[in-house]
Design a protein that fits this description.
By secondary structure, the chain is mostly helical. The chain is about 60% helix and about 0% strand. The chain has helices at about 5-20, 30-65, 70, 80-90, 95-100, 110-115, 120-160, 185-195, 200-205. α2 runs antiparallel to α7.
């Protein structure tokens, strides 16, 4: 019934269930695990904030009729950011901008040039500049979290006295380090030194270990 449920009644009900042994104690990590989890969560929040500014950049480009998002998979990838930074530096020639494409970009220089013929209005360039600056700022702060995460993982490995050697060599496809949100250090090596594992679930196992 609306209005019948309160925080007090919830607390009393949980207390009663706990007295019957029907609830499990919540997990509260200690020491360096709690510290590591805090850095990881802070990093996730920063990347979420940065993602909102990707939308702002895309909107500013669209307002200028620059259809960059139609010719690159990610406007914050190597090709996209090169072009955006060049635009903000004053470059307007579509062909010159298209020459900034990364060699791995699927779209040709001709296709990119056609998508970069637009009207460079001052107000939209201003919005694009601010969105890029905020995107860069959040990623800079995320890099600071990377340094803390790497340091804690090293301390945990030394403290636990694990010596698993070097991680098995992964294929090029599975060992990509050019992703926009990738950690700034070799996560596989750090996790292998600590756990002897390099799977994506290894970090989760560290954060939930008792």
């Amino acid at each position: 019934m609306p209005g019948r449920k309160t925080d007090v009644s919830d607390a009393q009900w949980l207390q009663r269930l706990h007295s019957f042994g029907l609830l499990r104690a919540s997990f509260r990590p200690k020491g360096q695990i709690a510290e590591l989890r805090a850095y990881v969560r802070q990093r996730e929040r920063l990347l979420e904030y940065a993602a909102s500014h990707i939308q702002h950049m895309q909107k500013a480009l669209t307002e200028m009729n620059l259809q960059l998002h139609h010719v690159v998979a990610d406007i914050t990838g190597a090709t996209g950011l090169r072009i955006i930074r060049a635009i903000l530096a004053g470059e307007r020639d579509p062909e010159a901008l298209a020459c900034l494409r990364h060699y791995s970009c699927h779209s040709s220089a001709e296709t990119i040039a056609k998508a970069l013929t637009g009207s460079y209005r001052a107000e939209h360039l201003f919005a694009l500049e601010q969105a890029l600056a905020l995107y860069d700022a959040y990623h800079e702060k995320a890099s600071a979290c990377d340094a803390r995460i790497e340091a804690v993982l090293k301390e945990l490995s030394i403290h636990r006295g694990h010596g698993h050697g070097s991680a098995p060599r992964a294929s090029r496809r599975r060992n990509r380090t050019d992703q926009a949100n990738a950690l700034a250090f070799d996560v596989r090596e750090a996790l292998f030194a600590l756990l002897g594992k390099t799977s994506p679930r290894s970090m989760a196992s560290v954060l939930t270990s008792r």
